[in-house]
Amino acid sequence: MMRSLFAGVSGLRNHQVRMDVIGNNISNVNTVGYKASRVTFEESLSMTLRGATMPNSRVGGTNPIQVGLGMTVGTIDTILNQGSLQATGQQTDLAISGNGFFVLSDGQRYFFTRAGAFQFDAQGRLVNPSNGLVVQGRMADARGRISSTSAIQDIALPFGQKVPARATRSITFTGNLDAGEKPLGTITKTAPFLAVEEAGDNTDMAGLYARGNTNSFISGMVSGVTTVTVNDGATERTYTYVSGDSVVGNGEFTTLQDLIAEINQDFSGSLKLTLTANGAVKVEDASGSAHVVTFRSNSAALQSALGAANGTIDSSSGKVTFTDEFSHRATKDEELSKLRNSVGEPLGISPGDVISVSAIVGGEDKSGTLTVTTTTKLGDLADFIQSTFGITNRNGVQVDERGCLVINGDPGEDYAIEAPSIRISGNTKFNTACVMNELQKAQDVTHSASITIYDELGMEHIVTLTFTKTDVENQWRWEATLAGDEIISSGSTGTINFNSDGSLNSFLYDNGMTSFKFDPNNGASFMEIVFDAGDIGGFNGITQFASPSTAVASSQDGYPNGDLTTINIDETGKITGIFSNGVTQTLAQIALAVFNNPAGLLRAGENLYQISANSGTAVLGLAGESVQAKIVPGHLEMSNVDLAEEFTNMIVAQRGFQANARVITTTDDLLNELVNLKR
Known about the structure:
Blueprint: H1 2-27, E1 37-43, E2 46-50, E3 65-68, E4 71-78, E5 85-87, E6 93-98, E7 101-105, E8 110-113, E9 116-117, E10 119-120, E11 126-127, E12 134-139, E13 153-154, E14 162-163, E15 170-178, E16 187-189, E17 194-196, E18 209-211, E19 216-217, E20 227-231, E21 236-241, E22 252-253, H2 256-266, E23 271-275, E24 280-285, E25 291-297, H3 300-307, E26 311-313, E27 321-329, E28 339-340, E29 354-361, E30 364-371, H4 378-389, E31 397-399, E32 405-408, E33 417-424, H5 428-433, E34 437-440, E35 446-454, E36 460-469, E37 475-482, E38 487-490, E39 493-498, E40 504-509, E41 516-519, E42 527-532, E43 542-545, E44 552-556, E45 562-569, E46 574-579, E47 584-594, E48 602-605, E49 608-610, E50 619-622, E51 629-633, E52 635-637, H6 643-675
Parallel strand pairs: 15-42, 15-43, 21-22
Antiparallel strand pairs: 1-4, 2-3, 5-52, 6-9, 6-51, 7-8, 7-12, 7-47, 10-11, 12-13, 12-47, 14-45, 15-44, 16-32, 16-34, 17-27, 17-28, 18-19, 18-27, 20-21, 20-25, 23-24, 24-27, 25-26, 29-30, 29-33, 31-32, 35-36, 36-37, 37-39, 38-41, 39-40, 41-42, 45-46, 46-47, 47-50, 48-49
Helix pairs in contact: 1-6
């Protein structure tokens, strides 16, 4: 009977252990990285009252008869299920998603934890602030490289650490150069030249200039409407203007010559009209007696020009009248001697005159002289100017439809025409008429891209690459310049060529150079820089399409010295330093440990574990490589305690405890009855 009493006692004692574990779980429900425990029970020893017998041919066998002596705690297991991750916003708060433990050290022993609430101490070491244990990992070398063979050690990041300056070795260019843009040439022109109207010129009356009363071009003439009426004192005839070709004898006229012919035909006995060398119409008497001639027109300009001849004419006394002087817009076929200025005044050019031509073309003085002959034409002067100035484009020097002498310089600033001069010594009217008015300056198609680079001392230098379009298809010239006192040695000019599809064909340096070289002139070493315009035949660098120029120097590989200001931690535990100069460099990588039996680890308090005889040795590795886990910065792993489960387990433990207590009280009653047999 005493056996049941002690069995009940074992039940009480071991259910109390289970309550202790449940209570510990519940108390750690908000502990970072805590892993819940569970208790399993097992039967204690059993007393054999009778052993088992073996069956034989006569009787069967019998089972053993045993009485149990209670129960005991079999295991207290660690439940390693993943806990929920909670964001904290603290960069050095780290959580593990997956297997593994953070490795901490006191300098002699390793400890392991899932609680990643770390901070940097005064020496820049990443530590657990509750106990000062240092987080372990691999440190990078001075160039930011982490060797797989480097030792696991304390992670120490001394803020204020400096990264030395690095001299620029390469500049990368990307973007577009506009294929549609064209360089501009100088365009300059004179005022319009006129030429005296002569017999055979046959200029439409609507295009004549009248000098005298009118001093303007004949305007307002309408075909079939504008008329000229002539009265010789006895007879009156009216003639109608028609544009195009008129028929003499039908009372129509188109040119001044047509009108003269019509009048001479109709007034052959009284009037005689002739066109003089200066372009005026001379009106003479053909009757032998004095009479008055009158010209009228419903065109004000024509009335003024012809009306100048209204008056008395008399062949006996030699009295004649004259109209205004008529001129037409000059063409390239006009002889220079017949030229007039824009207000119809003769320029007085004579055979033997010497025309001096000069200009500064592309920074060079160009000059020459042309001697006028009786047959020298305005077109000859234009050709001479073009030849003297070395102009090669097809428009060159022309006489336009208004009679202006127009100089069309070759495109680009290298061919800019400055201070053009066309003169005849002592001929003021000609010299004034030849004053050039610039309509368009020579202009290159250029695009510039600048970037700041660094020498080995960390000093800044500004490099500008200027692209200038050439007259060769799909080709631009480039020139590299520096903004300071640097001394350029070589490789500062070259060409960039494109394929017909806009891709890069070549990027060449002049004189066979392969890089841009210069002396910083500040104590730093000589610099050599390669310009990277992209892959040949590719579109990843500079292209040439018919869209605005956007080419930029997109990057360079140099930087000044800088101080470590902040860090970033990625999911592999790699710690990247961000320096004040914008450079980022790998500094260290946090190690993780895995075990064959992580449940066999020995709890050491403070959320720490230690290796036990049954955990297996720690295998140290890196997240995402030998350890199948990732590190989540800015998060902490919460406790994996399930309160609902723990409360249920508490009820079960409570009932178990109560039942074992009833065994004890019941046994006590039986013993009491036994004692009471003797009264």
